[in-house]
């Protein structure tokens, strides 16, 4: 097993082999000489942690500066950023973990680094690139997506994060017929929730972007050309009935203005569970006939967003079997989950496979849980207990998390 | 007459269903699930252990039940608790509730730990297994009461309890308390974790019930000589 090869770290390998003795005393974390990541000196970085660096943590909290040498290490999302960047979108168990540990740490993994390097080198005058994260259940697709969203956020992009497209095709209590288009259906609650979270994420963009078209909502209400986007979003949040159409208008405006030369911003569309847009829904019309996804305004507009006929941004999507409808539980490949229609719409895309934890990543996760006092069972801290954890979880991140929860 | 004919036309089912009985021939020996026993090298075996091994190589062994594992995380007290919580043989649900309880207790304690100032951190117990065992210890009654008939009347006589009986009473009280005396809409794991944490710090209804039993036994000590064993 190799950690990075810089000269100071031959000591690292030796210290790692003596881990069993060290892990029994949690009060002294493994002290290593500072690695050469980032340009900061060690002294000024440590605001709250008096002890020096540990193997599984890195002080490089900016996703743009992270590279292969940080693979397997945890970086902390600064608490000030946390609620603005991730009002929605994080997996629920991870949110509980953040609340318990009082900090939000994300592991730097290969798929996320690959995505970030693609985003750094892409040409934004060409049509948008679509990136698709796929992998078995629980392998870390949503977390990689959130890592990439954090990167986009720190780089000043406008982030359109749809936490789970499946939420829009099932369990909808109110389905209103759309006023704009006769055969479509609106979902006011989901649309207004999403708009509220969108407003939290992108506060600073809302006053800068001006509308290029006049939108008429009812006989007496309309939004004029040249008004800031913030006004449109506020209207959508307050007037719940027309919120789905507001979502459509917002998406259209962003699509038109993303690649613009004057005041141009980059747009990141992050969709989790993108296979929900092309499957079947569980919603029914009043005459009990099933609703197809195209007949939902939100889904229709989102599909237009995922098309690559605009430029100046990127579409990052994740497949998800967990929330999906009518998909077998062993399916994880793009062909199986997207179906024919979905695959044709997403084609061409860059597939990014997300695998289970490697040995190094597993070690890192294990040490992190030990550090946070999460692994409490006395036997879980022994070699035998660790072997048993590897055997039971097969290095699957979510299974390991659930196992360690009660140990 | 019709009654007797319908009795004969019933399909035959055996009178005794062997659900929980392990009716093995006494010739069969118990299985040994612990891994350490098999890792002792040949040279370090005591004569009794050598004899036992030879016996096991000739005698047949019973099948191990589903609840024994060679896992290092196996806990017999916890398994007993799971069996007592189980209804209609649904061990998956009972085990799920217990794991959620342990997780919930650990989460509460770890959250408290991370938010506590440096001086108080050492006092907070985060290990859910330690909390569970200590809470159960705090709920175990030391002395019990038996209903003994003397001269036509029944007296509540204080008697010593065996270890198994004490453990059983503690677990039974814990489970009934959580099932009956809590708010209807709280989930079982939440109720259990609250009650266990309270029992760990010697508060809560179960510990109160134990104290009441002790007081009754103390007040009835005059009848102690009615016990003949």
UniProtKB/TrEMBL annotation, chain A:
GO terms for biological process: apoptotic process. Signal peptide: none annotated. GO terms for molecular function: structural constituent of ribosome. InterPro entries: P-loop_NTPase, Ribosomal_mS29, Ribosomal_mS29_met. Pfam families: DAP3. It comes from the Eukaryota. One of its GO terms (cellular component) is mitochondrial small ribosomal subunit. It is found in: Mitochondrion. The keyword Transit peptide applies. Keywords: Mitochondrion, Ribonucleoprotein, Ribosomal protein, Transit peptide. Belongs to the mitochondrion-specific ribosomal protein mS29 family. This is Small ribosomal subunit protein mS29.
Automatic annotation (TrEMBL), chain B:
Residues 65-221 form the Small ribosomal subunit protein uS7 domain. It comes from the Eukaryota. It is found in: Mitochondrion. GO terms for cellular component: mitochondrial inner membrane; mitochondrial small ribosomal subunit. Keywords: Mitochondrion, Ribonucleoprotein, Ribosomal protein, Transit peptide. GO terms for biological process: translation. It holds the Pfam family Ribosomal_S7. InterPro entries: Ribosomal_uS7, Ribosomal_uS7_dom, Ribosomal_uS7_dom_sf. Belongs to the universal ribosomal protein uS7 family. This is Small ribosomal subunit protein uS7m.
């Amino acid at each position: 097993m190799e950690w990075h090869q810089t000269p100071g770290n031959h000591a690292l390998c030796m210290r790692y082999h003596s881990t069993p003795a060290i892990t029994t005393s949690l009060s002294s974390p493994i002290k290593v000489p500072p690695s050469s990541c980032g340009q900061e000196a060690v002294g000024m970085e440590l605001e709250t942690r008096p002890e020096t660096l540990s193997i599984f943590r890195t002080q490089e909290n900016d996703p743009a500066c992270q590279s292969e040498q940080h693979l397997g290490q945890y970086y902390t999302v600064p608490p000030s950023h946390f609620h603005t960047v991730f009002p929605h979108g994080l997996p629920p168990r991870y949110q509980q973990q953040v609340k318990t540990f009082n900090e939000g740490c994300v592991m730097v993994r290969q798929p996320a680094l690959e995505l970030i390097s693609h985003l750094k080198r892409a040409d934004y005058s060409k049509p948008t690139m679509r990136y698709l994260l796929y992998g078995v259940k629980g392998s870390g697709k949503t977390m990689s997506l959130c890592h990439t969203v954090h990167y986009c956020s720190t780089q000043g992009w406008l982030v359109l994060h749809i936490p789970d497209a499946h939420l829009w095709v099932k369990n909808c209590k109110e389905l209103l017929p759309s006023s704009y288009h006769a055969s479509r259906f609106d979902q006011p609650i989901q649309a207004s929730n999403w708009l509220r979270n969108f407003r939290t994420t992108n506060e600073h963009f809302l006053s800068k972007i001006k509308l290029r078209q006049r939108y008429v909502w009812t006989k007496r209400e309309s939004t004029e050309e040249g008004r800031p986007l913030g006004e449109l979003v506020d209207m959508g949040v307050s007037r719940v009935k027309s919120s789905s159409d507001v979502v459509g208008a917002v998406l259209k405006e962003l699509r038109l203005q993303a690649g613009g030369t004057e005041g141009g911003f980059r747009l990141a569309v992050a969709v989790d569970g993108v296979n929900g847009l092309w499957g079947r829904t569980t919603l029914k019309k009043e005459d009990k006939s099933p609703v197809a996804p195209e007949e939902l305004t939100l889904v229709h507009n989102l599909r237009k967003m995922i098309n690559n006929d605009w430029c100046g941004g990127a579409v990052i999507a994740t497949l998800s079997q967990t929330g999906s409808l009518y998909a077998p539980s062993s399916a994880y490949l793009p062909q199986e989950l997207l179906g024919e229609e979905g695959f044709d719409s997403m084609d061409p895309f860059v597939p990014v496979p997300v695998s289970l934890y490697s040995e190094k990543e597993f070690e890192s996760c294990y040490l992190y849980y030990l550090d946070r006092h999460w692994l409490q069972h006395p036997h879980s801290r022994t070699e035998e207990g660790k072997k048993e954890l590897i055997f039971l979880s097969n290095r699957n991140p979510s299974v390991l998390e659930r196992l360690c929860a009660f140990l | 007459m019709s009654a007797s004919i319908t009795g004969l036309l019933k399909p035959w089912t055996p009178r005794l269903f062997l659900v929980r009985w392990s009716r093995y021939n006494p010739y069969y020996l118990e299985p040994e699930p612990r891994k350490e026993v098999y890792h002792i090298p040949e040279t370090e075996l005591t004569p009794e252990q050598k004899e036992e091994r030879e016996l096991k190589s000739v005698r047949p062994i019973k099948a191990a039940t589903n609840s024994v594992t060679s896992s290092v995380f196996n806990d017999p007290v916890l398994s007993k608790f799971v069996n007592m919580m189980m209804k209609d043989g649904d061990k998956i649900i009972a085990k799920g509730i217990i794991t959620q309880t342990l997780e919930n207790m650990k989460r509460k304690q770890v959250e408290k730990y991370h938010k506590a100032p440096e001086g108080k951190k050492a006092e907070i117990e985060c290990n859910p297994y330690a909390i569970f065992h200590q809470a159960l210890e705090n709920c175990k009654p030391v002395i019990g009461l038996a209903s003994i008939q003397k001269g036509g009347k029944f007296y509540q006589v204080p008697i010593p309890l065996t270890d198994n009986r004490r453990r059983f009473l503690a677990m039974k009280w814990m489970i009934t308390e959580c099932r009956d005396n809590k708010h209807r809409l709280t989930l079982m794991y939440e109720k259990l974790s609250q009650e266990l944490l309270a029992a760990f710090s010697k508060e809560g209804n179960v510990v109160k019930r134990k104290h009441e039993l002790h007081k009754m036994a103390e007040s009835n000590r005059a009848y102690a000589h009615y016990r003949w064993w």
